[in-house]
Amino acid sequence: MLRTDTPVSVKLEEYTPYPFEIDQVSLDFSLEPSETRVKARMTVRRTQPGPLVLDGVKLKLNEIRLDGKTLGPDAYDLTDETLTIRAVPDAFVLETDVTINPSANTALSGLYISGGRFCSQCEATGFRHITYWPDRPDVMSRFHVRMDADKSKYPILLSNGTPGESGDHSDGRHYAEWDDPHPKPSYLFALCAGDYDVWRDTFTTMNGDHVDLGVYVDKGQAKSAEWAMESLKASMKWDEERFGRAYDLGVFNIVAVRDFNFGAMENKGLNIFNSAYVLASQESATDADFEAIESIVGHEYFHNWTGNRITCRDWFQLCLKEGLTVFRDQEFSSDLRSRPVQRIKDVMRLRARQFAEDAGPLAHPARPSKYGSIDNLYTGTVYEKGSELIRALTVFIGIDAFNKGMQIYFNEYDGTASTIEDFYSCFEKASGKDLSQFRLWYAQAGTPEVKVEESWDAASSTLTLTLSQKIPATPGQPTKQPVPIPLRTALLDGKGAHVGVEGWENGEGVIVLEDEKMTVDLKLTGTSDKPLLSINRQFSAPVRIDRELSNEALLELAAAETDPFNIWDNFQTLARTEIFRLLDNPQSPPDEALVGALGDAVRSNESDPAFAALLTALPDIGELFQHREPVDPAGLNDARKRLRKALGENLKADAERILAKPSPAPFKPNAEQAGIRALRSAMIGLTGALDTADASRKLKSLFDAASNMTESLACLRTLVPFETAERDEVIETFYETWKENPLVIDKWFAVQVGQGTADDARRLSQHPDFDLSNPNRVRSVAAAFSMTNLAAFHARDGEGHKVIGDIILEADKRNPALAARLLTSFEQWRKLEPVAKASAEKVLKDLQSQSLSKNASDILARALG
Ligand code: ARG
Ligand code: ZN
C-alpha cells in the first residue's frame, strides 16, 4: 500500500489528458445511512495508451467486473486513494460494486447525512468518496442514476437531470431513476433523499420550453423558500436577457441542507444549498439575508452555463468558472438593485478578503500554477479577484467586444472542459487585441499599486498625469511584470460638471497604464482653472491608488465627485488617514472638518438611503490592518471608535429624526425598503457609538419596537458592548424568542463574539447550542470572532488566539475543510505588534505539532513558511 502523508503539490504544467473516455455511466444506490451500496456500470473507450486509474477513498470494494467477468485481486492494484486496473482492452464495460458509510462522513465531502437525510457535495473531489471514478473535471460522462431506499424515511429521491421510472417494492422500499442527458464531470453529480416540503413553481424559457422548479426544505418551512424561488425565476430571466442563455432541462431543483461546508453548489439540475442561503421569512431574515439569497441563487443558476455546460479542464482553471460566475452574479444584483451601492459592497468585500489575502503568506495568483490541497483554493483571489479581472477586461476591450466575446465563448466552447487561454482567445477574436499581457493578471499574485502624480500647465490647458505601477513581491514571486491597468478617468470642475478633454466622449476616458511608468497629457477642449482629477472611477481596476492629496484637497474632490463609488472611496481614504492620526495622537480630538463633511454627506444623500448608510461605515479594522506594520488592532479599534463617536454626535439629531419615523410597512424585501432599513440600522449603530446610559435605554426600546430582523439585530449588535441591564435583557429575550430557529441563533452567536472578548468566544464555544458538527454554528462563533473582531482576536493576552486554536484542533478531527478555512484567520499574523505576533506564532506552531489534516497542514505550512 502506498501512503502519501506529506502534502505533495499538483502542478499546472504537469497536466495530461485522461487516456480514456467514459461515454455513459449508470449508478445504482441502495441507500442506508451506515451501509450504502453503490454499483457503477461504465462504458469506457481508450483514447491514448496507459493504465486505467480510478480515484476512490474509503470505499469498501465488493466486486469489479470487466465485460461481465469478475476480476481477481491480481488484475488490479488498490491503494488508499486509487484503483488501477492493469490490462484493459480498447473498449469495454466496467462494473464496480462498493459499500460506503454516509453516516460516518463528518467531513461533508461525498455522500453524507444532514438532518436525517442523504445529501452530497462532490466539488472538488467528493465523488471519489462515493465510487471509483476518474474524479477530474475533464472527464465528462452522461449519468443515469437509480436509487432505492426505505419509502417511509426517504419518500423523496432526487438526482441530476429529469426523473424517469419510479415505483414501490413489496418490502417498504421504493426506487426512482434520474437521467441527465448532458455530459458532465463527476464534481457536478448530486443526490438527495429524505422527507421534505417543497415550494413549487414553473418557468417558460425564451425558447418556449417548460421547466418545473422546486425548492426542497425542512418540513413545515415551504413558505420560507418563496424568496429563493423568486430569485431563481429572476435569474433565469436575467441570463436570457443579458447573455441570451436559456435553461436546458425540464426540471430545476434546489435542496436546502443545514450542514454544509460552503454557501451552495451548482450540481446540474439539482443545486444543493446551505439552508442559510435558502430560508428566509419576513420575521427571521435580515435584508442582508434576502440579498445574499438572491445573489447566491443567481450565482449557482448562472453556473449552468459558466461551469456546467462549459466546465474547467483542471482545478487550476477554477477562476474560469468562479471568477466569471461571480462577475455574472454581481451584474445580476446590480441590475436588480442599485448599481453604485452594489459596486461599493463588492469592493468592500474585495478589499477585506482578497486584498488582505494578496498581501499575506497565502497570496496566490488567480490562476495558480501549483497547489497542495484543492479545497484551499476556493479563495477570495479565485472568486473576487477573478471577477474583478473580467470587469477590468470589459473596460479594457469595451463592453461591446466583451459581449461579443462571451457569445463566441458560449458557442465555441459549449460541451467542453476549458482553460483561461480558451476563454481569452474569444475576446482576442472579438476585440482584435492581443491579450497576452492582460493574462499576466492571472499569473501574478499581489495587488498592483498605482502612483498618480499631476502637473497642470495653465498656458496650454493641459493636465499631465504621471502614472506608475508596482506589484509587491508575493510568496514564490519576487519580481513582477507590469500588467495593463484600465483606469476610468474624468476631470471635474468642482461645480458638479465634467471638463471636456480632447479625444474623450461624454466627459470620461479610459487611460490604460501598460508599462511600469507613463505620462499622459490631458488637453482640455476649453479653458478652465486646474481641474480636479477623478481616477479609477467605479473601481475600474482592482488596484490600490496612491495619491498625495491633502485632507483639504480630498474633501474638495469628494464634494466635486460625480462618481458615487469615488465619493464613498474618498471618504474612506479620509477616514482611514484620520484613524491613523488618532492612533498616533491619543489625546487629539477627531478632526471637526472631516466629521462635519461626512455628516453633511450623509444628510445630503438621505434620498438614497442605502448609499447614505454606506457613507457612515468607517473602514473596518481588517482594511486598516493593511496600511501599517507592525499593527496594533486594539489601538486601531480605539482610534476608530473615537471617530465613530464624533460622527454619532454629529448625526445625533438626524438619527433621532430618522428613527422616530416608522419602519416601512408592510414589509417587503426589495432594495427600496432595504435601503431605508440600512440607513435606520446605521443610525442605530451610531446611537450606540455614543456609549451613554441614555443610548442603552434608547436601543432597548428600539429593540422592543423593531418589526423586522434587520433592525432587531442592529439593536442587539449595538448593545453587546454595553454593560447595562438592558443589554443582558435583550440578549436573553432574543435567545428565548428564536431558540428554535438555528439560522437566527447563528446570528445570536455571531453578534456576541463579533463585539465581545475572547472570554465571550470561549464561553459561547461551550454553550449547549454550540455544535462542532455543524459548520454554520462553528463559523458563527469561530469565524465571526476571528475574522470580524480583530481587536479581540489579536488581543495581547493571547486568549483570542488560544480559543480559536482550540476550536480548530477539534474541528479538524471531523471536518478538515472547515478547520483549514478557520486557520486562514491567522494569515496576517506577521504584521502584528510583537506581543500578539508571538502568541499567534505559538498557537500556529502548537497546531503544526499536532499533525493535522492535509488541508489544515497546507495552510499552516504556508502561513508559517
Ligand atoms: N462551486 C461552488 C460555488 O462557488 C462552491 C464549491 C466549494 N467547494 C469547495 N471544495 N470549496 O458556487
Ligand atoms: Zn461558484
From TrEMBL:
Domain Peptidase M1 alanyl aminopeptidase C-terminal: 552-864
EC numbers, comma separated: 3.4.11.2
Keywords: Aminopeptidase, Hydrolase, Metal-binding, Metalloprotease, Protease, Zinc
Gene3D superfamilies in alphabetical order: 2.60.40.1840, 3.30.2010.30, Neutral Protease Domain 2, Peptidase M1, alanyl aminopeptidase, C-terminal domain, tricorn interacting facor f3 domain
Domain Peptidase M1 membrane alanine aminopeptidase: 227-438
Keyword Cytoplasm annotated: no
Cofactor: Zn(2+)
Pfam families xref list: DUF3458, DUF3458_C, Peptidase_M1, Peptidase_M1_N
Domain of life: Bacteria
Catalytic activity: Release of an N-terminal amino acid, Xaa-|-Yaa- from a peptide, amide or arylamide. Xaa is preferably Ala, but may be most amino acids including Pro (slow action). When a terminal hydrophobic residue is followed by a prolyl residue, the two may be released as an intact Xaa-Pro dipeptide
InterPro entries from the UniProt entry: Aminopeptidase_N-like_N, Aminopeptidase_N-like_N_sf, PepN_Ig-like_sf, Peptidase_M1, Peptidase_M1_dom, Peptidase_M1_pepN, Peptidase_M1_pepN_C, Peptidase_M1_pepN_C_sf
Annotated GO MF terms: alanyl aminopeptidase activity
Limits of the Aminopeptidase N-like N-terminal domain: 37-188
Domain named Peptidase M1 alanyl aminopeptidase Ig-like fold: residues: 446-547
Enzyme class (EC, first level): hydrolase
Family: Belongs to the peptidase M1 family.
Name under which the protein is recorded: Aminopeptidase N
Native source species: Henriciella marina
Gene: pepN
